[in-house]
Design brief:
This protein is mostly beta strands. It has one helix at residues 10-13; strands at 37-39, 51-52, 57-64, 80-92, 98-99, 106-111, 121-123, 127-134, 140-154, 157-173, 191-192, 199-202, 209-215, 220-226, 232-235, 242-249, 254-261. The strands form four sheets. Strands 2, 4, 5, 7, 9 and 10 form a six-stranded mixed sheet that branches. A four-stranded antiparallel sheet has the order 1-3-8-6, with no helix packed on it. Strands 14-13-16-17 form a four-stranded antiparallel sheet, with no helix packed on it. Strand 4 and strand 5 (98-99) form a beta hairpin. It is globular.
Length: 264
């Protein structure tokens, strides 16, 4: 499988995901004057909501598809016809096993507003959405990737280009959302700076927790404890340049975020 050269196009392919009620989503995100865009946007650290085993889950993704690939990367000045989902994959960050969404109790529902018989075919120049929903059946932290076909026009002919995208996270917590608790501290957690060079810090929380860091291969790079109200700093000067997954786990909650380490 050939990997697409420009990462900006990732957001175009990620139309297959998405936060509201169960059922068909509404493509109603305000992109302003932008020619293209996506929400949530993984390139700026946004991720899908944490899921809990046995608790119904839904998250919505919005995308504005451009009419020309040059809106994303000027080096590719080709008319864009459509993009189509081919497959979604989950890779367990510990066992490295590959699964489908259905393997963990989830499924994907695309809404292309009826513009094509295939609901996961999105036509250029329109806004669309899709939802991941279901009731998770098993815990895990997964790298989420997808295969798409991007159709561009070459000499008047639509040509399909296969690409693979990765780097998103599906985090399923095994204990479920305890007693329906809705107050959460995970939304307050942040790692900074990101990208990191010599190290990064964790925003102090009011609970004790464990921090684990894994690289893209799933290898455990670091495991440490953080205590309530303490400032936690993680040194990265000896780490290789690349992408890492930082998982913060308390007694009731867990959050996994992508951390980039880049040495200048």
């Amino acid at each position: 499988m050939k990997t697409f050269h420009y990462t900006s196009f990732m957001l175009l392919g990620m139309f297959f995901f998405g936060t509201t009620s169960f059922g068909q989503c509404d493509p109603d995100f305000d992109f302003g004057e932008a020619l293209w865009g996506a929400s949530p946007d993984a390139s700026i650290g946004e991720q899908f909501d944490t899921a809990y085993v046995g608790t119904p889950y839904v998250d919505v993704f919005h995308v504005l598809v451009p009419t020309d690939a040059s809106a994303i990367d000027p080096a590719f000045a080709l008319p864009l016809d459509s993009v189509v989902l081919v497959a979604t994959r989950l890779v367990d960050t510990i066992s490295l096993d590959t699964l489908s969404l259905e393997d963990v109790g989830l499924s994907i529902i695309c809404n292309n507003l009826g513009t094509s018989p295939n609901a996961c075919t999105l036509i250029a120049g329109q806004q669309y959405c899709a939802s991941i929903e279901g009731t998770p059946t098993g815990p895990g932290v997964y790298q989420l990737s997808l295969d798409i076909q991007a159709y561009v026009t070459v000499f008047g002919i639509a040509v399909a280009q296969p690409y693979q995208f990765s780097g998103y996270i599906m985090d399923i917590v095994g204990e479920g959302n305890p007693d329906g608790i809705v107050e959460s501290v995970v939304d307050q957690i942040s790692w900074f700076p990101n990208p990191a060079d010599q190290g990064f810090q964790l925003t102090p929380m009011n609970v004790d927790a464990t921090i684990e860091v894994r690289d893209m291969s799933g290898r455990l790079v670091l495991s440490t404890q953080t205590f309530a109200q303490n400032q936690t700093r993680i040194a990265t000067q000896d780490w290789n340049t690349g992408i890492y997954f930082v998982t913060w786990t308390s007694d009731f909650e867990r959050k996994t975020s992508k951390m980039v380490v880049r040495h200048d």
